[in-house]
Write a structure and sequence with these properties.
Distance between the termini: 41 Å
Keywords: Calcium, Cell adhesion, Glycoprotein, Integrin, Metal-binding, Receptor, Repeat, Signal
Strand order of the largest sheet: 6-5-4-7-8-9
Oligomer: single chain
Helix content: 10-25%
Largest sheet: 6 strands, mixed
Membrane topology: Single-pass type I membrane protein
InterPro entries: FG-GAP, Int_alpha_beta-p, Integrin_alpha, Integrin_alpha_N, VWF_A, vWFA_dom_sf
Number of helices: 12
Mean pLDDT: 75
Subcellular location: Membrane
Shape: elongated
Low-confidence stretches: 1-45, 233-262, 463-480
Pfam families: FG-GAP, VWA
Number of strands: 27
Amino acid sequence: SCSFLYQPLQLSHQMPLGRQRLCLPSCDLKLLHISSDFVISKCLKGNVDLVFLFDGSESLKDHEFNSIKNFMIDVMKKLRNSSIHFAAVQFSYDVKLEFDFNDYIKNPDPDMLLAQVVHEKSITNTFKAVEYVVNNVFIPERGMRKGANKVIIIITDGEASDGNNGNVEAAKAKGILRLIIGIGHRFKTEESQKTLRILASEPTNQYLKVLASFEELRDSFSDLQSKIYTLEGGELFTPTRQTWSRVATSAAKGSSCIFKPLPFSLLQGRTVLGAVGADNWAGGLLEQQKDFTSERFITTPLFRKEMAGAYLGYALKLLQRQSREFYAVGAPRYQHVGRVLVFEVNASTTNWTLKQEFEGQQTGSYFGAVLCVVDVDNNQETDLLLVGAQMQFTETEGGCVYDNLILQGKLHGVSGYPLGRFGAAITDLADINGDGWTDVAVGAPLEEEEKGAIYIYNVSCEPKKPIHQALSSLFIKLFV
């Protein structure tokens, strides 16, 4: 087979189509109406409304106060591509609403939202601030969403100047989860942490984090992220450990927003299904035996805690290389960045062995939610494994497609669509330009003001060239 190398792609041509017919060298490609109603994964996640309740007391030095502000900005940027809405409240002697959920919805730029924050520099009325958030921020008028999970993250460097007059109980009654971050030397002893434990949700060892210095605040995102993403998963059915057939049936009957149609592969009588809801949503595969009277559950040798909520089996593709049989399996919520695992099935023993793993690069990217295998030269061997990460984004681009098999490269859409979700759908095509190589189409359903776009890549194979552009693109805009 060919060895492929390519650099990040540039668009070579673009043409608005509408209902027109596009003529290519070897065939006609006629595009009929394609609905732009396709919205990825909004129903996969429960909404989270999150309030930063941060200390502005005089005990904080200016650089420490700025560290808190920068931490909030960093968290909002990293979780921007999620179902989380933010608000921020500063507390000292008085309580000051810096921005509410409505402000965030209008302009989710954390730098701008926190640009006018002024350090209040007075005493630390923490419980008064909690009461304010419960009664004045978590309300529909401030943009709180019906049914959303409610979270307060309290960041403070000192003990409260006031006392608990039912404020924490009011937060509990409203179902508000309270994550507490205590920073600095004032919280060295168990006694000094007593107030923090009153404020935190239970069990307090999970929802209270004490940091020795403000420098550690920058590194606490991963722990915070895991707690928030657990909430974002929503109220989902957790299967019991009954037969795996029952587990697969439960998954198939789930909401269409939660489950895509179960992946399927059949080779020499082998039938493999994805079971994303199995084992506390770690997921896995179900291999049906030839007589369809029994099945075998396939999972990963990774630590069970590490795989919790990973959705293994969300995407599934068969690869064939040198008369060997492999399965690429997507786990888009693995550790919140996503992972693709490649298993080999021994033809004689039918044993499954984990051979290779690829991990996403950005929190919430949904790396591995979409997989596509391509036989470029039509020799019955897999040449490309394309992995979609449609929720990955930069300031100008939304979505990405990786090849993790041979090329070790990536594709992306045009600049200007950071929420375009390029890679939400990927498929191999026939040889549409007559050059002898299989071509590829990638969907970006939210580009062009959510009208959608399809990118068609013409694959080429020239192994003698050390570096070349293996896929040149033709950009097709779809207008509703």
